[in-house]
Design a protein that fits this description.
Layout (H helix, E strand, L loop, with lengths): L7 H8 L6 H11 L3 E4 L7 H6 L4 E5 L2 H14 L5 E5 L11 E6 L10 H14 E12 L10 E11 L5 E11 L4 E11 L5 E11 L3 H10 L2 E7 L13 E8 L2
Parallel strand pairs: 1-2, 1-4, 2-3, 4-5
Antiparallel strand pairs: 5-11, 6-7, 7-8, 8-9, 10-11
């Protein structure tokens, strides 16, 4: 069972409206000129608009609940002929390609907390790509996150509504281990009913952050050549104050 199964409905409602990265991936898919593999695709946030743009898209995710939500989204958008979805872990063999572009969006690569898992995943992605295929990995820039100050305090992150209209208050607590580059995150979702009642869901998660040359080294070891590192979806240069680290690499040979 995936760690996201228990919170798929919260994640979907929380992230479905995020489109800041869509123009970047749409243009990168156009440049790559072919099939797209959305690794750790979640509930299909990118799968559907990329299919609507005319690309053939395969999405994989280790969460059955996420894949089911992606299937419903694909069906509702009428793009099923251009989409295949797979309940699958990136650390196992991926759906046969070749794909011309692989995407690992919105910090998803950070769920791979060991070097072994990271290299295994990258090896499978490389095998699924066309010999000249591209890979894009989007993770946050740890220098901009003040991780040393994360000591476990619970703070309100945002509020949003589920599909059924229920209001949810999302709280987040983070505790960072600077030596291990591990961020232990606890998500707390409070569902508020009309009578003032609260239904609470608490979900812990562990993420590992990356520094620029660490990630570049991993990609080189896995058979990729780094083409660019951006600090925004608008292709701004990556600098210490950048919020994200968006890396584009090409399969080598």
């Amino acid at each position: 069972m995936s760690e996201y199964d228990a919170i798929a409905r919260f994640y979907d409602a929380d992230h479905s409206g995020f489109v800041d990265d869509l123009p970047f991936y749409r243009e990168l898919a156009r440049r790559a000129g072919g099939r797209v593999l959305d690794v750790m695709c979640g509930s299909g946030r990118l799968v559907v608009p990329l299919a609507q743009a005319g690309f053939r898209v395969a999405g994989i995710d280790s969460s059955a609940a996420m894949i089911e939500r992606a299937r419903m989204r694909v069906a509702a958008a009428g793009v099923a002929p251009r989409v295949t979805l797979h309940h699958q872990d990136v650390r196992s063999a991926l759906p046969p390609g070749p794909y011309h572009l692989a995407i690992v969006a919105l910090n998803s690569f950070m769920h791979l907390t060991t070097t072994k898992d990271q290299l295994t995943a990258l090896d499978h992605i490389r095998s699924a790509l066309d010999p000249d295929g591209l890979l894009a990995i989007d993770v946050f820039n740890p220098h901009a996150r003040n991780l040393a100050d994360c000591s476990g305090e619970l703070a309100l992150d945002r509020t949003f509504r589920l599909d059924d209209g229920v209001l949810v208050c999302k709280f987040v607590a983070q505790r960072a281990d600077m030596a291990q580059q591990i961020n232990d995150v606890t998500f707390v979702y409070d569902e508020l009913d009309e009578n003032g009642g609260v239904r609470r869901t608490v979900h812990p998660m562990t993420l590992r952050w990356f520094y620029r040359y660490e990630l570049e080294h991993l990609l080189e070891r896995a058979g990729f050549v780094v083409e660019a590192v951006y600090g925004s979806y608008d292709l701004d240069p990556f600098v210490a104050s950048s919020d994200i680290m968006l890396t584009v690499a090409r399969r080598r040979g």
